[in-house]
């Protein structure tokens, strides 16, 4: 629910202040040629205002998992990490965009981190190796997680030459990201991003 709320906020922000609104659809395809759900897709266009920091933003530790597994936030967002489990957790990240280490804390306790640089921030737990998640920090209002068909749509994009960036753990490039240029006309644009072996 929080993740959907964050995406709704980003979608609303993306429509504000853009003179020539144009729909953009991006399809992400895996190495095997199939749609790749769960990829984070961003669209950067010159002159697009940065998304406002709203919130609250939260990644809970619940049922020995991060919830939501992927959270998209704007640069400058503060994210809380409440522990809703009966066991203690030790949340950390070694990602270049934000390194942090939240030492052991128990049920109904919470810690917060401010994310001040864009990029993917992989989450882990020092106690539970199977726990993993992602906070994706973005400087563009056009950011979403690909649906079951590997597709995202952005409304309200301005016309111009931009860049589509895709993050997914299966991308074998630095930061697990892949970028390609995209020209958006006043009628919009459609793009396919194919992962390479």
Give me some keywords for this one.
globular, 2 domains, mainly beta, disordered N terminus, Immunoglobulin-like, 17 strands, 197 residues, 4-stranded antiparallel β-sheet, 5-stranded mixed β-sheet
What would your notes on this structure say?
The chain is mainly beta and 197 residues long. It folds into 2 domains: 19-49 and 141-197, Immunoglobulins (Immunoglobulin-like), CATH 2.60.40.10; 52-139, Immunoglobulin-like (Sandwich). Helix content is 7%, strand content 50%. It is built from 1 helix and 17 strands. The strands form 5 sheets. The protein has a 5-stranded mixed β-sheet. It has a 4-stranded antiparallel β-sheet with strand order 13-2-15-16. The protein is globular. Mean pLDDT is 89; it is low at 1-19. Keywords: Signal. Residues 1-21 form the signal peptide. This is Plastocyanin.
How does the major sheet shape up?
5 strands, mixed
Order of strands side by side in the largest beta sheet? 6-12-11-8-9
Rg computed from alpha carbons, rounded to a whole number of angstroms: 17 Å
The level of helicity is under 10%
CATH topology descriptor of the largest domain = Immunoglobulin-like
Q: What's the CATH C level of the largest domain?
A: Mainly Beta
SS-derived structural category: mainly beta
Number of domains: 2
What is the CATH superfamily label of the largest domain? Immunoglobulins
Q: What string gives the helices and strands in order? A: HEEEEEEEEEEEEEEEEE
Q: Which architecture of the largest domain would the CATH scheme give at its second level? A: Sandwich
Organism: Sphingomonas abaci
Protein name: Plastocyanin
Keywords: Signal
Signal peptide: 1-21
């Amino acid at each position: 629910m929080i993740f959907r709320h964050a995406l709704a906020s980003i979608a609303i922000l993306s429509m504000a202040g853009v003179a020539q609104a144009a729909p953009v659809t991006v399809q992400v395809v895996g190495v095997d040629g199939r749609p790749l759900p769960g990829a984070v897709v961003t669209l950067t266009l010159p002159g697009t205002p940065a998304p406002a920091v709203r919130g609250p933003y939260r990644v809970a530790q619940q049922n020995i998992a991060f919830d939501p597994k992927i959270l998209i936030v704007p640069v400058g967002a503060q994210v809380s990490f409440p522990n809703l489990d009966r066991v203690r957790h030790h949340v950390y990240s070694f990602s270049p965009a934000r390194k942090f280490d939240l030492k052991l804390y128990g049920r109904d306790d919470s810690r917060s981190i401010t994310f001040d640089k864009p990029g993917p921030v992989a989450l882990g737990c020092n106690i539970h190796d199977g726990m993993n998640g992602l906070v994706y920090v973005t400087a563009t209002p056009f950011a979403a997680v690909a649906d079951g068909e590997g597709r995202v749509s952005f409304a309200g994009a301005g016309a111009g030459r931009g860049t589509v960036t895709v993050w997914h753990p299966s991308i074998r490039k630095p930061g697990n990201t892949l970028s390609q240029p995209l020209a958006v006309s006043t009628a919009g644009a459609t793009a396919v991003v194919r992962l390479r072996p």
